Amino acid sequence: MQCSTYAFENTAEILSFLKKKEANDPDRRHEYGRYSNPTSTVAEQRIADLENGEKSLLFASGMSAITTTLLALLDSGDHVIIASSTYRQTKNFVIDHLARWAIEATFIADGSLQGIEDAIQPQTKLILFETPTHPLRRVVDIERVPELALRNGILTLTDATCATPINLRPFDHATDLVIHSATKYLGGHNDLLAGAVVGQRELLLRIEKARGVFGGVASPHDAYLLVRGLKTLALRVQRQNENGMRIARYLSTQDAARIVHYPGLPAHPDHEIAARLFSGFGGVVSFEIRGSMQDTSRVIDALKIPYIGPTLGGVESIAQQQAVFTSLDEAERRKDGIPDNLIGYAAGIEDADVLIRDRGQARTQADAHPERGGPT
Ligand SMILES: *Cc1c(COP(=O)(O)O)cnc(C)c1O
């Protein structure tokens, strides 16, 4: 509903509303758009149902969901454990902002359970991880992380943006909170920005209060687009899983692709974990070509079907060369495991044969016109 305020009939209605608000009655009416909106409430309900969670909260973006959640749950002096491959802006928030409030973080290697165990301190309040990760598609054994956390009274927060509720149900594996950038697969059409947190009502209450203060709510129109997008989530993800697998298999037969990072391939280091936890391996394939930074740019530029850009999860395929898109210098890229020749390919719902033919012609084009483009 395109509306910022919800007028009351009279003072008696306000008083009755306030009583319900005081008691956190979930069935209370709406008041003001920064607290709730009927369309957002529908989106929240659908996302909670998809994740098999008790409740969900919608935000203006995935980053708004992450920052509000961390600020609501952490206190000065707390310690968090976070994988070093976590989404860049999440890392920046931890490094540039949480540190200013004396909330310390230990960054651990992708998927390393030993790393988590070694990093646990008495002050550790929260473990945050993504699965699968950008850009190397590492998969954390989320059956084991909550076990470790529970033993130490630590909350676990899973950013399952790339997994989607179709491929993975983190709550089946006892995680405390699930986060999504709904901008990606949940919305699915590259036309909205939103984020969501899912978890138990009790835990979400603090986050909901913080959202009312920080104000990062999704716009009603974005919530509407999200509800609409969710109707086709299962179909889209099914197709993207198929396309991801087809493209990964094709690339792994090509000499020009040196390494293909896709958890659906038996050669991927986490294939066994992914096969156990996931019902599909997703639409994102990362691969390293045989060639330099410039050769890689030429391949990207010669692709005709995917857009060139920094997102994933939409119906349109999108490709990007991470080394060009990131603001990191060469040493930092190396440290973060982003080789110059790495291409991230987020498959849309197009016909896989067409995508594969496009990749074939791009290779030929790039070989035939080495003078064409690409930053040096
Ligand atoms: C995109 C993304 C985010 C941030 O979401 P926005 O909606 O862009 O704010 C967080 N985590 C992951 C894994 C993402 O891919």
Give your account of this protein's structure.
This protein is of the alpha/beta class. It has helices spanning 11-22, 38-51, 62-73, 88-97, 113-119, 145-151, 164-167, 201-214, 220-230, 233-252, 271-277, 293-302, 322-325, 330-335, 352-368; strands at 55-59, 79-83, 104-108, 124-130, 155-159, 177-181, 195-199, 257-261, 284-289, 307-308, 318-321, 342-346. The strands form two sheets. It has a seven-stranded mixed β-sheet, sandwiched between helices. Helix 6 (145-151) links the parallel strand 4 and strand 5. Helix 2 (38-51) runs parallel beside helix 9 (220-230), helix 3 (62-73) packs across helix 8 and helix 12 (293-302) crosses helix 15 (352-368). The longest helix has 20 residues, at 233-252. The radius of gyration is 22 Å and the shape is globular. The N and C termini lie far apart (49 Å). Residues 372-376 have low confidence and may be disordered. Pyridoxal-5'-phosphate (PLP) is lined by residues 61-63, 87, 130, 159, 161-162, 181, 183-184, 193, 195.
Secondary structure blueprint with pairings:
Layout: H1 11-22, H2 38-51, E1 55-59, H3 62-73, E2 79-83, H4 88-97, E3 104-108, H5 113-119, E4 124-130, H6 145-151, E5 155-159, H7 164-167, E6 177-181, E7 195-199, H8 201-214, H9 220-230, H10 233-252, E8 257-261, H11 271-277, E9 284-289, H12 293-302, E10 307-308, E11 318-321, H13 322-325, H14 330-335, E12 342-346, H15 352-368
